[in-house]
Amino acid sequence: MTSAVELTDDLVREYLTFRGFTNTLKFFEADIKTDKEKGLRGDRIVEQLMQFIHSFDLNGMLEYWAYLERRLFSRLEDVYRPTIHKLKTSLFRYYLVYTVQTSRTDKAHDFFQKQAVELQNQAEWKEWFSLPFLPTPEGNPTFATYFSRQWADTFTVSLHNFLSVLFQCMPVPTILNFDAEFQRIIHVQEDNDVLRHKLFALQSETQRTRKEGDDGPLVHHKLPPYVSNMDRLGDSELKMMSSQRNAGVSVQSPKSSGFLSSLLPQSKKPPTKPTLQPPVSPPTQNMAVLPIKKETTNNQLPKPKEVPTVTKEARGPQNVLGVPGSTDAILVRQRRVLERKELLSKASSQSIEKKSEMVDIECDVRTEPQSDLGDVTTKASNATSGGDKAEQPFIVLSQDEYGEHHSSIMHCRVDCSGRRVASLDVDGVIKVWSIDGFMQTKASSISKSALLSLEWATKRDRLLLLGSEVGTVRLYDTEAKKTLCEIGIAEDMPRILSLACNPSGTSFVCSAAAPSSPCNIDPVFSGDNGGNQVPGKLLLWDTKTMKQQLQYFLEPVPIAINCTSFNHNGNLLVTGAADGFIRLFDMQQHQCAMSWKAHKGEVYSVDFSYDENAVYSIGEDGKFIQWDIHKSGQKVLEYLLPSDATGPFMLSGYSGYKQVQFPRGRLFAFDSEGNYMLTCSSTGGVIYKLNSDGSAMESCLSLGGHRAPVVTVDWSTAVECGTCLTASMDGKIRLTTLLAQKS
């Protein structure tokens, strides 16, 4: 921070000189000389306070501390107020001790005369009023500690550290971030170059192995799992693995195996033997392997009878790889295969790590006929991925967790720049945190009234729109950490269910609904599915004036709108309602262009497709449906999602405890090209591939990492690497960075 401020000052001087703004430059230099913040340097601020104390300038010390409170300390959260108060108390005591040590009791009397009104009601100062009248205060047990050199040094160091941390964490102007951004980009480019070189080395190695296999039997080495962790391996380790392959070593030595085991996680240990499998395009297949929990729902091993048996050829003097082997070694290998078969037959389901071990067992029998080999590897591939896939669409670069929330998440949205996230939980706690570089909380607020909806403002991405259940919408400044204004929407419709800001930035739509309590006097009618459906309004508000522009007419009856979404230019608005209808509004004509019955039950989430020729929706019936908006809502694709992807979401605990949450936030999100979709699940996010030919969706990647059901997702593509957010009922938010594979 200090170097950035000094460098920025020099750049401003250079710019003003270049532009010929000499008068501005003079004032700038004068302001720097009288800068009370001392270039945001904590050591200089401490020196200034010590100068006031040593010169007995009580007024100067008080005025300077008041300036620090007004300019710096006021930006901190309330949790730091006790710390600031303790530092102020210690500063006053440091001044009093110095006056007594220098025999200037008159200055001590002067201090108490000026500060008596403020300090006399504070219990911690009760005994200090007698300090000037004690003959030897340093011998008094109450004051002895404060006269020691150790206490004085501890206070100055604590004050310096507090100021330094404050300057590091406080929000700064964009111009001060350029140096950090420049360094971060350089580090990212260097890391990318290293990974690219390692990737090219592995590709060339695989191609060389494939060419060597053309001369003999068709045998291919499976890329080891350390490829997905190659950012942890150096060049020496990669050379070691390469030399082992070139030497034809099929079994790792205990030394190298132990070395890699110490580097890699337990679930990512490299296989002990090369694995036989059909050719794959190097090296993309294994690079998207996630260090996730063991899953047994969709990842089960083939039955034990599918494990290939040892044939007569296995007793020959030479295996498939052409490496000579003794009869004893073959018998030992056969016995180990039979023992593992017996162990596998006792297990009902195994994890992904166990599956890789089973493939290794198959590779131990080196003399299996080629026809049987193809069947075995195909089964292992199907057991692992649920189908024959040539490559994974994404490389998982990193996974992080944000754990500042302590209750279930309702909304979690990335701003348009892709650098900050706003999250809201059921307790009304709002957190704004950065995701560029490292996760850091930028702003935090607690709402007195329950909040139901959240949306980033489009043009000024520092602003948040927050909808409550008492009929108000707040405009919250995330940098100033305060509410700019709060407007009342509708007294008879207090629940603000959805907010959507027009991409043009001139307006936002607001969905208001009547109370859902039984004592509500508003009419509650029954829908086609027999469920109670609450009336509501859809309103358009001006962002600048914060005044209502108009109310949209909802047919056949006013109904609560659960979800809203604009297209890229704000000319179209799609909504999903509690009556199961999807309505498409023309924002230029300010009327409903078309509507159709989409789901049996409520519509939970809705959004436009990438080309905006279609609309996707998820409803209470558990269906994910694609609609053609050019053919009056004709159904293009229908897919039945698992129940844990659509809600209601349930979290069970001990003693029969159950927590049920109905969907509030987004239930699905798309990648930058609209080819892949992220949804919720009970253990993490799941990515599906959307097929343009209208065929069924394919589950291609499970992000995992959650211990509670995921209730809302978001996918930011503002930066080169996509960022997936998955938020769960235990308050945890997982941040997964993906790199798309270029086909």
Automatic annotation (TrEMBL):
Q: Where is the ARMC9 CTLH-like domain?
A: 47-169
Query: For this UniProt entry, what is the primary localization, expressed as one broad class?
Result: membrane
Question: How does it sit in the bilayer?
Answer: Peripheral membrane protein
Classification via Gene3D superfamilies: YVTN repeat-like/Quinoprotein amine dehydrogenase
Q: Which GO terms describe its cellular component?
A: early endosome membrane; late endosome membrane
Keyword set, alphabetical order: Coiled coil, Endosome, Membrane, Repeat, WD repeat
**Is Transferase one of the keywords UniProt gives this record?**
no
One of this protein's Pfam families, by short name?
A: CTLH_Armc9
The record's Gene Ontology biological-process terms are: early endosome to late endosome transport; negative regulation of phosphatidylinositol 3-kinase/protein kinase B signal transduction
One GO term in the molecular function aspect is: phosphatidylinositol 3-kinase inhibitor activity
Q: What are the boundaries of the region Disordered?
A: 207-286, 298-322
WD repeat windows: 561-595, 596-629
The residue range of the signal peptide is none
The cellular location(s) given in this protein's UniProt record come to: Early endosome membrane; Late endosome membrane
Query: For bias kind Basic and acidic residues, which ranges apply?
Result: 207-218
Q: Which domain of life is it from?
A: Eukaryota
Cite the record's Pro residues compositional bias ranges: 272-282
Coiled-coil ranges (or none): none
Family indicated by similarity? Belongs to the WD repeat WDR91 family.
Put simply, this protein is called WD repeat-containing protein 91
Annotated source species: Leptobrachium leishanense (Leishan spiny toad)
